[in-house]
């Protein structure tokens, strides 16, 4: 539905192992007598990548949970789970549950991650899972075939500007929600985060842990913070990285999205400033006034695409989406600078587009990253119907969690106002959720957890925030720490979505917190290990 949505899952780097520490005493593996008993997970050995030899350390399962928790003995949905068994069973502490974000991000293969280092891997079973309605877990689908989906989504413009584009996009959103109402089934009524958290607590009991150890990224921070307030006495260690503002998100979806757009603007502005400071050739876009050059490109694309030498076109939608996507990962920022410079040179000299400035070290291929292919559907026959392989969990969760107006024209009006304040991402973000206006199971009718958020948890929650996180701006991390009843904030001076894996100092804190339960000292500001624009 949107590049912002698709890119929300954090792209995290490998976390190096820390020095071995004294073994922590395992947590009590016997669930409290006050808790209702649940069936244990029926694990079966599995190979996460059948194209490679089986490492023999993984198990998989599909764990049944109630579709509707008001009817616990009724219909069930299956939650797909994978675990990587602790490499040192004699020192095993428990299970570390992982969620990558989204909503709609698949966490199943996160059991294979090495992000948490060898000490964590030796003492915890790493457990990844697809939340209800996502990927392998009873995926919620609004379409029967890919062709049905394309017929609707291809009419949506990522950044609609003209009246015709706006009207067609809103009409397509209405057709989308009509399809969801027709095809999604009863699961669509039970996709709010409160149900994901209930599933998580049931899985926690099913693996035998008395308390939860969890790491959630991006939207996963809403899962973690909701758990902390629904089950405050069951918190062993919860890491939330790339934080949402739970209170705002659950009370005013439109205002949350406006502030989210501002986070992208702040990250973009910092990227352009650091590019200007580094200068060319360290930053390929660093010659001249980077802000003025960027604004020239964006403002031109509002009315006309830029045609590249190979015939492909950079449009306002493709440009905005690719810039947003690049801001999610520090590793993509130097390539983004090349793409911007190559596109700018084409824009400046369309008649001599192939003559790129040698000092910029950019090429036509760099510019192509900001383009979309010219449609060529007329040159091929219509294919036979194919299965719809995606799912629609992103909208299903957001529309149930976040209250929105029921009039979709509100989004078009918001786009006009937000664009004045946030010229690059305001209009883009405003059109992320018009479907929620007509969603068949909206937040106003849904069972959902909307607070309070200040329950005192049995152990401290570790909140991590980047100063220039585009998707979940730093103020959200500050508010998360303030809203929770027992939390500490660690900050990282980085332009990126989520921070775990980018700083060895942070990695050590994460390991000690997970293994020993030692919360980091408050008020720390860390630096990432890598530079955005290293010396050439």
Please outline what is shown here.
By secondary structure, the chain is α/β, with parallel strands linked by helices. The chain is built from 17 helices and twelve strands. Residues 423-523 form the Peptidase S33 tripeptidyl aminopeptidase-like C-terminal domain.
Structure write-up:
The protein folds into 3 domains: 42-137 and 187-250 and 445-524, 3-Layer(aba) Sandwich (Rossmann fold); 144-183 and 380-401 and 403-441, no CATH class; 254-365, no CATH class. The strands form 2 sheets. It has a 10-stranded mixed β-sheet, with helices on both faces. Strands 8-9 form a two-stranded antiparallel sheet. It has helices at 3-7, 117-123, 146-153, 163-183, 193-206, 220-230, 246-251, 253-278, 290-301, 316-327, 333-348, 364-368, 393-401, 409-421, 426-430, 474-483, 504-516; strands at residues 44-45, 58-66, 76-84, 94-99, 124-129, 212-217, 235-241, 306-307, 313-314, 461-468, 487-495, 524-526. By secondary structure, the chain is of the alpha/beta class. It starts with a helix and ends in a 10-residue tail after the last strand. The protein is built from 17 helices and 12 strands. The radius of gyration is 24 Å and the shape is globular. α2 (117-123) runs parallel beside α17 (504-516) and α5 (193-206) packs across α6.
